[in-house]
Amino acid sequence: MIKYIFQYLLASALLLFSTFAAWYEGSEIRDNPWEWKYSAFFSKMFNGEITNSADISQLDHFIYAAKFSPIYPTFIIVSLSYILILSLYLLLKRYKRSLIVLLFSFGILYLLLGGIVADSPTIGGKYFMSVFIAIGILNFIMSFLFYLKFRRNGKVVSSSLLN
Question: What is the phi/psi pair of residue 159, to 5°?
Answer without folding.
Answer: -120, 165
